[in-house]
Structure formats: structure tokens, C-alpha cells
Design a protein that fits this description.
mainly alpha, two-stranded antiparallel sheet, 68% helix
Amino acid sequence: VYGIIELINFAHGDVFTLGAFISLALFPAFGIAEGKSGFGYVLPLLAVGVITMLVTGVINVAIERVAYRPLRHAPRLAPLITAIGMSSILEGAMYLWRGPFNLHYPDLLPATRLNIGGVSIGVKDLIVMTLAIVLVVAFTLFINLSKLGKAMRATAQDRDAAQLMGIDINRTIAATFFIGAVLAAAGG
């Protein structure tokens, strides 16, 4: 988001947290509970992940449309203050939704450890690193090989020239916010 519209999105960390809250709320609907394990959880976890990413992406696109788009040509301070305000709004919404309590996120990944060459590494750590690598590679390929990725790079370099070349700047920026939220939800 910063690379394309040069806005420090202070609400991004809150979108990350919102992704965790949404996935936590979806667990009971998919029968996911702590203490159970096995490959039977792979599909429900994938379903929760995809739904969480989509919901969080839609919320972030709505935030961009309502809060940031009207200020696109405003002085630099206005969008920055709005980003801080959106962060506060998201925090307040999560506070109203879940309350002022610490929430326990179920530990669903295996806690076993592997000894490789005298180094002990957790299976959980390997799963998280593998997912992170897959997402980074997929994102890099998307940015470098897709038409939307090329539009994003063009918008980042020169918004006016990109628009003159037929790129829909609003759609490109909205897609950027969607992708940012999807990756934040994956982390959350």
C-alpha cells in the first residue's frame, strides 16, 4: 500500500488482528477445537483461512473507499490522520465485538520437534515458514507476471502516466488494499 499510494496505513496491524478475530469466530462453525489434531483439520483450516482472507479483504477495500479515496488529492497530513483514525475505529470495533479480554487462540499445529543435524526445530515452525514462503513466492509471481501486477507497478511509478495509459487507478488501488488485507489475514 505504501509503495503505490505512499500512505503509511496505521490500520494494517489492526487488519492483521481482525483476521485473527474473524478466524477465531469461524472455528466453531467448522468444528475446530483445541486438543484435536490430525489431517482431518487441513480442509477446515483452509476453509477458515480462505473465508477470513476474503472477509478481511472486503473490509479493507471498504475502508479504502470510505476513508482514503476521498483524501487521495488532499495534503499529506490528512490521509495520515485518517489512517490513525481508522486504526482506532477498528480497535474499537474489535473491543465492542470481543470485549477487553485476552483471547486464547487454539494451538492446532503439532508441537513435535525434529532434530536435524543437532538442531531442534518445531514442526509448527516449519509449517509457518512454508506457508510464508508460498505466500511470498505467489505474491512475487503475481506482481511480476499478471496484468494487475503490472498495473500496480505502473501506478506506483507514476499515477498520472498510468492513468493516461488506460489503467483504472481506483481499481488498482482497491486491489492493492484487498491483497494487503489478504496477506494480513493470512498472518493473523
